Amino acid sequence: MPSTHLPSVELHLHIEGTLEPELIFELAARNKVTLPYRDIADLKSRYEFTDLQSFLTLYYANMAVLQTAQDFADLTRAYLRRASAAGVRHAEIFLDPQAHTVRGVSLAACVNGVAGALRDSQAQFGLSSALIITFLRDQPAAEALDTLTQLIAMNAPIIGIGLDSAEVGHPPIDFVEVFDLARAHGLKCVAHAGEEGPPEYVWQALQLLQVSRVDHGIRSLEDPLLVDYLVQNAIPLTVCPLSNVRLRVVDTLADHPLQAMLERGLLVTINSDDPAYFGGYLDDTFAAITRTFNLTVDQLAVLARNGVRAAFIDDDRRAELL
Ligand code: HPA
Ligand code: ZN
Q1: Domain limits of the chain?
Q2: Is the distance from the beta carbon of residue 218 to the nearest atom of ligand 1 less than 6 Å?
Q3: Predicted pLDDT at 7
Q4: Does residue 274's CB lie within 6 angstroms of at least one atom of ligand 1?
Q5: Which terminus of the chain, N or C, has less C-beta within 10 A?
Q6: Which residues are listed under the site Important for catalytic activity (predicted)?
Q7: Is residue 167 annotated as part of the catalytic site, yes or no?
Q8: Measured in angstroms, how far is the CA atom of residue 273 from the centroid of ligand 2?
Q9: What is the pLDDT of residues 174-203, one digit of tens each?
Q10: How many angstroms separate the first and last alpha carbons of the chain?
């Protein structure tokens, strides 16, 4: 019998955010990259963030060690191994190609490296997986459009697109053309919205980008009409509680509106976002919220089922996971 309380699906996970300090040093040695840190302890001492941007600065800097398809495949396999141990049975993974092509890494190297590892995820690690390409909203939309055009021409094995990076000042409306092109090619659409940005950005993601899931979305609670819309249309929110604490979206985990979101009937899923930076993988995240909120077995079952409901999988796979 499938266990209903297991954290079985992960839908908001940046593969670059699984780059652990140990692997940063290993890849730096392999690729002869000089790191601006004395040692692992020195690097770890910098994992104190004041907001999203303070995290993004370190997150993008550390990507310098990712250079070859092999590096991306090793990174992805390390995540899959850890996710499998966490009980994850299906993962939809974000990759930010622009953060790599800007450094001279080819689009093929990063996409094929990650996709190659994902292809074997079921056989090697016992979980199904899929790739979602995320575009950097603080870079020009024309660059995102160019990247998507290349991915389509390459027939890249992706199921959808998303939008991430610095949110405030970079509204979804800027990316309408990109998302129109993705939908015309049958790709699923998601977007980070309402993490640091206002409810208006969530509305734009829904109405202009026609996303079928909202990543984070916790500031939606500030707009009762938006909450009603999300509930009535059963739009999943991929919530990342440990991320919200570490990026100071909320002060402490106890202050997180997770229970209010569940009580309002929102389709909340639980995710780890950038686990190497935010203090835990999906099992750690579930353990922390269970402890902090005294979640009942029934509430945990709802969260696990929501993940399965929100996944971009076919009905047969959904039935297997439920
Ligand atoms: N928000 C926006 N962009 C990101 C995040 C996030 O939480 N993680 C990695 N890129
Ligand atoms: Zn994210």
Answers
A1: 34-313
A2: no
A3: 60
A4: yes
A5: N
A6: 216
A7: no
A8: 5
A9: 999 999 999 999 999 999 999 999 999 999
A10: 10
- Cβ of 98 below 6 Å from ligand 1: no
Is 192 annotated among the ligand-binding residues?
Answer: yes
Any atom of ligand 1 within 6 Å of the Cβ of 16: no
Please tell me the residue having the least CA distance from ligand 1 atom 3: 165
CATH code of the domain occupying 34-313:
3.20.20.140
ipTM over 0.95: yes
Is 146 annotated as a binding-site member?
no
**pLDDT digits 0-9 by tens, 126-135:** 999 999 999 9
**Tens digits of residue pLDDT in 32-72:** 999 999 999 999 999 999 999 999 999 999 999 999 999 99
Query: Candidates 10, 16, 52: which one to mutate for ligand 1, based on the most atoms within 8 Å of Cβ?
Result: 52
Q: Which ligand gives the minimal distance to the CA of 196?
A: 1
